[in-house]
Amino acid sequence: MVLISSEQGESMRVMPSRYSGVQAAVGADLFKHVSGSRVLMVGAGGIGCELLKNLVMSGFGEIEVVDLDTIDLSNLNRQFLFQHRHIGKAKAHVAKESALGFNPDAKIKSHHASIYEAQFDQAWFKSFDLVLNALDNLAARRHVNAMCLAANVPLIESEIDTVLRLRWQTQSKDISRLYNSKHPKRPDTLHRVGQKLFVQLFGKPEDEEETINEEQTSDNAKEMAHLLHEKEALKRLREAAGTPEYGKLVFEKVFTDDVKGLLVMEDLWKNRRPPTPLNFAEATSDPSVTSTPADELAWDRKVWSIEENTRVFLDSLHELAVDFIEQQKRDPEFSMSFDKDDLAALNFVTATANLRAEVYGLEKKSRFAVKEMAGNIIPAVATTNAIIAGLIVMTAIKVLAGEWSSCKNTWVARNINPERLDKPNPSCAVCTINSYTLAINTESASLGDLLEMVVKGSPGESPTSGLGIQGEIAIQEGERLLYDVEFDDNLDMSLSELGIRHATRVMITNENDDDETGNSNVSVILYIEHRDEFGMPAKPFFTLDGDRTLVPRPRAPSAAPDPPKATSTATNNKRPAVLIDSDLGGNKRQKQENGNGDGVMHILDEDDTVLLIE
Amino acid sequence: MSTDQLWSSYGIPMAKLLWKAQNVELEGIGSLMVVDGCLVEESDLGQNFFVTPASVGQSRAKVVSELLLELNAEVEGSHVQRDPAEIIENSPEFFQHFSLVIATQITGPSLYKLADICWAANIPLVIVRAHGLMGYSRIIVREHTVVESHPEQIVDLRFDSPFAALREFAESFNLDELDSMAHSHVPYIVILLKAVDSWKRKHDGKLPSSTADREQFKQSIRDQQRSDMPGNQNFNEALASAYRAWTPTTIPSSIRSILNNTCAQNITSETPDFWIIARAVCDFVQNEGQGFLPLPGTVPDMHADTESYIRLQTIYRAKAREDAAAVSERVANLLASIGSSPSRIPVQEIEMFCKNAGYLHVIRYRSLTEEYATETARSKTIGNSLAGDPQDNIAWYVMLRAVEVCKTQFQRYPGESESHYVSDQQTVRKCVDAFMQEHGLDPALIADDYVQECVRAAGSEIHVIAAILGGIVSQEVIKLLTHQYVPLNNTVIFDGIKSAASVYEL
């Protein structure tokens, strides 16, 4: 509806509609684009909540939301779509329901699922006009980035680093292919793991039964069963408080059994170092270790050994549990909240963080350092989320308008500073990967067929022509090697027998020793699309989309190992990004952020935002 | 934090108000009040996510304040269903109870009057306006003091003027006699203290000042490295921090002017705590401080053996405590002299002040009257910004001033009435020209594009801009209320087309 108002006084004025403001501001034509668009939002955490609200308020047509997380007490202070009664429920679903309350006309589809799942294949990504990342973890961002590059769908990336440092970034294949060369650093968030466990053991118990039953109907019964199992385990732990085995039980649950559980999920460890479960007997083998040293000041600054951390963990846990039980006798509703100035709580958080660090092979911290980190958390992130989510939508509108030249990388530090989009980086290891969707019958086609017909087959105009790759070819799925010149055992196996199914990504790399042939080295990812009917009479054996011109892989800079791996190449190309703060407040500040992403951190940081101020 | 806030909204939309209110809600404001005279209209639904179709026709202030509280049950909220303009006109005393007032979309005479009321009562006022794809906010406070400005790092190590305990500690090291292991763990602070001391002995007590001096000074440090262990981390740290050693420990002029300010020099029973402590620090500097500020007592991380590091930490901390105790005593005497109890200012507050003494901020904002009166207006700021870049965000400021004149004249935003679309453009252009001429500026500096964009936007307040502005403003509000970090001084303009914000002192 268009804004119509007359000068015949208030009574004659036609009531302006819900969207009259945004229509006036962006213009009716562009608003049509906006309201006709299909947008994917990945992540429904801090930025996601703000973003979804902005999208429905601004009249975006169709929105799909994907998030694997459930709502946690610690989310409520800034993820305003969630309330206490939603704890334990799926973020994606609750976000959708809350956002519909703001605009019942919005079309939202929610997926309580991992973005890595096969259902989110290339065809699905291609169905969107625009993808908005509101993710906290690097691995998922890289995945979405790769999927968007392959599907040629513009991606707007955003990141919260600290309260004072946020940025979002626009990217499309045509404009900038640099995202992965400039990926962000995760600040150290280990202490939050400790705080989280503290809340689980001594905080307010969540209302498990009710929330879980409501979710039983969801497609993710398995997920829910796991969740229920987790909560049961936690409940048993809480009940064991005060018994002599309590310390051992908690220790083994958190640092041994849970870690073993994670190890089973092999997919998680394809591209990163797997965690090492701790052994309780070993960690407590030295009886002389004490948690009450003579010199408190030195102890405070020292990085404790594993045995010392274990001792501190057990002693502080005992101390807290005794206090907790005592208090609960008086008040059954009693719960503790973490206070960095409470020595037992700080000891507990420090030891937990360090033991976790040991499991994941990360650097351990002194109690002093943990206190500094835990104590500096300031609750100002809701405001920065609001700014960032607003900027994302402004950019989304520009992208839909096709105004690429006015899209900017924007840094929110002490001011809001736009930067020109980066030019495509010819030596970026991620965007020089050639992506194709390969439609094939994975039941009947063998790896040898794929190698001979698809990979080596002579290139041409037809969708059934091959890629014409020569030299020493290697085929990988993730880090799993399927074929190379010295390993041809799998060639006769069908793709499905090798675990290559619909939505699997297969990586092809080659090595040409002889440069004079003019053939350069390339990296290709094939996104597999399974077709039952292919390979039958009168049907093609396979089809490949797109033309056969392959972008060469950059000449390996010294740091880049060969061949590049499907999802973790970015570390090879990191480039420090310099952020210069504004004149706000008068003091110039220069900050170096070097892209030193640690693929492990996201598992430690189950929460989505980091509230550190240096 | 126990705080009363007044959220005052006016005119058609108020998405921004809400958005801001929501942000502040989540971050722990004690109590707030929403003032709004309007009923919820259909068009509010697209701007204000708090109101649903079911709220159409209800009091906007009521709907909003109720839903705000859902976000944080610990906040006390209330609402008043009265037109802010009417309250400003008839009940100026209404505003006296609040620790901060936020005025959204209030323009013209009501705004000027509100600014006068707040100025007289010494209440911080934050003005917020959104217009199409542009946002504006202005902070007005007579005086805002900040102790905890959260600088990147607090470093005050006294290389050039070590206090007795520090000097003795440095002297206890004899670098030549240490074995290689111990030599490679001497804290860089000690290396530098020794280097400065020996330099001063050879140069009549002067610090290295010329480039050649400084290079020579660094060379003297390099020369002490052991040939069997070159490139030791502690020596590298010493070289990297050498500039700190040749920079004399002084009091920055901005801090000097705070300490010597008349507010600190003339203490009465009305004097705020900040100025009493400032006076005590000033006296401290002139007496037992021997010309230096109280020592912060923090020691940066460094390569060293644990024992010497802890010794160093203890030495700096002890001196910091001693300084803070001396300042505390002066504060107590000052309080006694004005008949206040010594418990009025807690020791922690004094310690915090001493630790941050080198990073204090006092902002005296310009009043709205000063900004609007042609004689005192910052015409040069506007002119220079536009001359530097005709698309500078300051152009939007000129546009807002022009729109404000039109709004006051016609009681509607230019562009709101389609039948007046063309004449509105002419009117706005005239207002722009008049503003520029009054300020001695060339009207041609503002392109017609700005006029068109302004009229096209028709005073619309869109949700996204409101959300961004709300985020910015709530951060500033938190800074103002907590006296932590340095709030902006005094105007921020955000251009949604460019995705850029600029700050001006107007």
Automatic annotation (TrEMBL), chain A:
Its GO biological process annotations read: protein sumoylation
Biological or metabolic pathway of the protein = Protein modification; protein sumoylation
* Ubiquitin-activating enzyme SCCH domain segment(s): 331-371
Oligomeric form and interacting partners? Heterodimer.
State the family it belongs to.
Belongs to the ubiquitin-activating E1 family.
Which InterPro entries does the protein's record reference? ThiF/MoeB/HesA (IPR045886), ThiF_NAD_FAD-bd (IPR000594), Ub-E1_IAD_1 (IPR042449), Ub_act_enz_dom_a_sf (IPR023318), Uba2 (IPR030661), UBA_E1_SCCH (IPR019572), Ubiquitin-activating_enz (IPR035985)
Q: What keywords were assigned to this record?
A: ATP-binding, Metal-binding, Nucleotide-binding, Ubl conjugation pathway, Zinc
- What is the name attached to this protein's record? Ubiquitin-activating enzyme E1-like
GO-annotated molecular function: ATP binding; metal ion binding; SUMO activating enzyme activity
From TrEMBL, chain B:
| SUPFAM superfamilies noted in UniProt | Activating enzymes of the ubiquitin-like proteins
Where in the numbering of this chain does the THIF-type NAD/FAD binding fold domain appear?
21-499
Q: Where is this region: Disordered?
A: 204-231
* Any one GO biological process: protein neddylation
- From the Swiss-Prot or TrEMBL record, give the protein name: NEDD8-activating enzyme E1 regulatory subunit
Family label: Belongs to the ubiquitin-activating E1 family. ULA1 subfamily.
Q: Which Gene3D superfamilies has this protein been placed in?
A: NAD(P)-binding Rossmann-like Domain (3.40.50.720)
One Pfam family named in its UniProt record: ThiF
Q: Which GO terms describe its cellular component?
A: cytoplasm
Q: What residue spans carry the Basic and acidic residues bias annotation?
A: 212-226
**What role is this protein assigned?**
Regulatory subunit of the dimeric UBA3-ULA1 E1 enzyme.
Signal sequence region: none
Coiled coil (UniProt feature) = none
What pathway annotation does it carry? Protein modification; protein neddylation
Q: Which InterPro entries match?
A: APP-BP1 (IPR030667), ThiF/MoeB/HesA (IPR045886), ThiF_NAD_FAD-bd (IPR000594), Ubiquitin-activating_enz (IPR035985)
Q: Name one GO molecular function term.
A: NEDD8 activating enzyme activity
Keywords from UniProt, A to Z, are: Ubl conjugation pathway
